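ARCHIVE CARD
Drawer: 12
Card no.: 0347
Subject: one protein chain, sequence and derived structure
Cross-reference: see card 0346
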Amino acid sequence: MNEQDLRKMVEQLVDQMIGKETATPTAVSAPTKANESSYNESHIDRSGCLEDITAIDLKKQFLIKNAKNKDAYLEMKSKTPARLGIGKAGARYRTATMLRVRADHAAAQDAVFSDVSEEFIKKNDFVFVQTLCKDKDEYLTRPDLGRRFDEKEKEIIKKTCGQNPKVLIIVGDGLSSSAIEANVEDMIPSIKQGLQMYGITVGPILFIKYARVGAMDDIGQITGAEVICMLVGERPGLVTAESMSAYIAYEPRHGLPEANRTVISNIHKGGTTPVEAGAHTAELIKKMLDKKASGINLK
């Protein structure tokens, strides 16, 4: 059997497994648009590569054959990112569903183990500092070290932020570098614009590598800041690896109760958009300055 015959046989087997008619060796299926309500599982080019499966909108994907009420099901799916209407192949997931789960899991892992690029930090004129963590492994296993800085880094923080600033905006990589790179560039201008309406300006912005939320307390202790807003990447899941949160606190210091932080979460394109979150953040900061409180004390 020559190579051409072998290729043809493999193509026939693949087509039979996924319930499609056998294609001729020269026929190539038209690309399936990512925003269509169904996904053609057989869209595999002759090199064995799939199109970007993560570009498909899960809220519009529908893989159930012979559905009794497809429109009603799609209406239900439009309200949640949950993997509904995925169909099945025997007792198992269909190929498209299995591949999407694996792709989303891989994206989540990449978000945790990747670093925010140096180019991104320089492009946004952030001032770089690093917590006591020496590497990603130590960051993941020693959360306490992600909340403190050594003396050298403290000097950089003092020089950058000054003493007793009214408002500080800081950025921490947290558990998702993808979230920072996807949202920060839209959210920070929105916060600044909102604060300018109240006559409040902010200085240079710190970028903290290997940051835990508690790092804002150490910065508050060092600078005496009145309000600190920390943008940080959140632990990614299978729905998105780009979720960011804004933690805002009045006079954050060592020992600050978690209940005294105000949080805006789920900041990403499928949740609260960065621009909207930025405007809301500016309002909260102004309210904290007026009420001299944050978290559950902010009434």
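Annotation on reverse: The CA atoms of residues 243 and 268 lie 5 Å apart. The beta strands are 127-130, 167-172, 206-209, 227-233, 244-250, 261-267.
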